[in-house]
Prior knowledge:
With 191 residues, the chain is α+β, with helices and mostly antiparallel strands. It folds into 2 domains: 63 residues, Orthogonal Bundle (434 Repressor (Amino-terminal Domain)), CATH 1.10.260.40; 110 residues, Jelly Rolls (Sandwich), CATH 2.60.120. The chain is built from 4 helices and 9 strands, in the order ααααβββββββββ. The strands form 2 sheets. The chain has a 6-stranded antiparallel β-sheet, with no helix packed on it. The relative contact order is 0.16.
Amino acid sequence: MKEQQMIGSKIQGLRESKSISIEAFSERSGLSVEQIQLIESNSQLPSLAPLVKMARALGVRLGTFLDDNEDLGPVVSRKEDRPAGISFSSNTASSHNDLQFFSLAQKKAGRHMEPFVIDIQSSTQNGYALSSHEGEEFIYVLEGEIEIFYGKKVFKLAQGDSIYYDSIVDHNVHAANNSKARILAVVYTPF
């Protein structure tokens, strides 16, 4: 089963193990019943913001959807051992981001931060959908240039630049100038 398909199954399994109906889950997460059904049936892979909302509604950390390992000690992530990335493209008409996430700590149990290397390919055809979720994000540009819409501001970052922000503010991260970029991102979401 593909990693993307496993996310929907994990969400459904967690929800059912906690005896939470889809309607109650919808209310807790702020997502529609239809959207939850699409995600759980593996018909739609959500963007990062809905995943954060679902994790919070279930009382689990975001990484619970991405891994099964429970190492308590330090975890080393070697690039040659890194699993295939997971795409969180939202598949909506107003969003044209293609974000490929590579987890750097998927074997670490009980973590409070989610570190990722993210490959970004963007198109500016119809603009960018903003999203928000509780927590904070740190981004360091490894390659290329990115643009971040944050509230009413726009930040352009080049290789070697970084930004740290509260993710409760509406935001969108995408490659600048219709190009490609690679970033290191650390996402903290309280639960």
